[in-house]
Each structure stands twice: as C-alpha cells, then as structure tokens.
Amino acid sequence: MSRLITRRAMTAGLVTGAGALLAGCDAIGRSETARNLLFTGADLHRGLQRTLQGRDALAPEYRPDQMSPRFRTNGATNPGTEAYRAHLATGFRDWRLKVDGLVRRPLAISLRQLQTMPQRAQITRHDCVEGWSAIGKWQGPRLAHLLDLAGLREEANYIVFHCADRHGASAYYESIDLVDAYHPQTILAWAMNRRQLPVGHGAPVRLRVERQLGYKHAKFVMRVEAVASLDAIGAGKGGFWEDRADYAWYAGI
Ligand SMILES: Nc1nc2c(c(=O)[nH]1)N[C@H]1C(S)=C(S)[C@@H](COP(=O)(O)O)O[C@H]1N2
Ligand SMILES: [Mo]
Description:
Elements: H1 3-24, H2 26-30, H3 32-40, H4 46-53, H5 82-89, E1 96-101, E2 107-110, H6 111-116, E3 120-128, E4 132-140, H7 143-150, E5 158-167, E6 170-177, H8 178-181, E7 187-189, E8 191-192, E9 195-196, E10 206-208, E11 221-227, H9 240-245
Parallel strand pairs: 1-11
Antiparallel strand pairs: 1-2, 3-4, 4-8, 5-6, 5-11, 7-10, 8-9
The structure holds ligand MTE and molybdenum atom.
Pfam families: Oxidored_molyb
Protein name: Molybdopterin-dependent oxidoreductase
C-alpha cells in the first residue's frame, strides 16, 4: 500500500472524528445564536474551528506588502563547525542533504537539485515562544516530494531533522509526524525573502512547518531520517528543546 493511501486513511480518520464532534453538537447547531457563536464567535472558538477543519488546514498566508521589514534570527546563527565552514566557503557545492532511515531509496541531494525540483513559495508568520513574530517568504521543495522520491516505508511514523549546530554534547534536531510531513506548506526552504537562505536563518536549508511554533522549524538541516519511533533519538522526546526544556513536541497553533 502506498504512503499516500495510508495518509488518506489517516485524514479520513480525522474527518470521521470531526464528524462525530459535529454530530455531538447537533442540538447546539440547530440554534442560530449558538451556531454564530461557534463559527464566527470569539477567539475561544477558533480552536474548535481548527479542529473541525483538520490538521490539513493551511496556515494563513500573507501579501508581499505585509512582510516584516526585519526578520530577526534566533537560537544558533552559525553552526561554526569545521565541516560547516568548509561547505560555506564553497557555496555548499559538495554538500548533500541525506534522506535515509525507513526509505526504499536513500538519497543524497545537492543544493542545486533542491533548487530545481518543483517548488513551493509561501509568505507566512513565524511565531517564537520567546514572544516575537515575523512575516517572511519561504521557498523550496515540499518535504512530501523528497519523501516520495525516497520511497517512505510502511513502518515509518516520524520524520527527524538532524541539524549541523551542536550544543554541548547534543546536536539540534526536531521531528514531525506524517500529517505534518505531507502538509502542503511543509517545505525545505533554501530561499528566504527571494534570496538564498542566509546563514543566520539556517543555510543551506531549513524546515518550514507552518502550522507549528518556531522551534520546530529546524535550521541547518543536514539529514532527514524516517523512523518508526522517536525513543532512540536524542533523549527521546522528539526535539532539542523537547528534551532539554520540556517544550511540547506537538506545537501546532
Ligand atoms: N538548527 C537549529 N534550528 C533552530 C534553532 C536552533 O537554535 N538551531 N532555533 C529555533 C527557534 S527557537 C526559532 S524561533 C527559529 C528561529 O529562526 P530564525 O533564526 O530564522 O528566526 O529557529 C528554530 N530552529
Ligand atoms: Mo523560538
């Protein structure tokens, strides 16, 4: 069975869940006032609307004139390792993005290849838990495209992003499930605001997973690994900050 069918089945599961929720709301739904409260009401109800829309719903996209004049950097701004410095010096000419783990055809993709495959561009808002947001434009291939090229195996449940920056003994990493991995706005961005991704923002590629908070957007991605379980990665909580500071693994907003 193909991964897409599996994913469709997952989506169907979500839809059924939302359907059940709607059925439960039938009595409320009959009252015009209650329906208005539910669907056009205050912020409190936006969460419910999201749930009803399902996790495939798109994050809001913005117009070019809404882009932030300044998009700050946060966390690591340069991995600073010898290997990274060497790649930077040669414009990432010999750098390859590894796609491996539970895939049929492990890949080693050049930056040029990433730039010439089918692309998606989106202007979105980045929200950091430290209390700042910025709107920027991101471009790159969809993660789904890379996973399909590699042939994700049935046993795969999560996608792990291994980054170049080290913090003491551990490297930054993040992970997402397959719903987010195949979400249309989930891309590996090599361009930001119409220019090649600057080092501070994660060159040569960084993850954009637009329904999630900032720390999920792994910068300096060197390797994309498909796994069945997150237990053996890092301290097992699915990400650098999840391991270290109890940040939520699912940071959907
Ligand atoms: N590899 C790596 N990715 C990372 C981080 C990091 O320190 N290292 N910081 C995260 C956090 S907390 C945020 S808010 C964003 C910041 O992205 P920016 O520097 O492009 O603004 O990157 C995320 N991805
Ligand atoms: Mo952040």
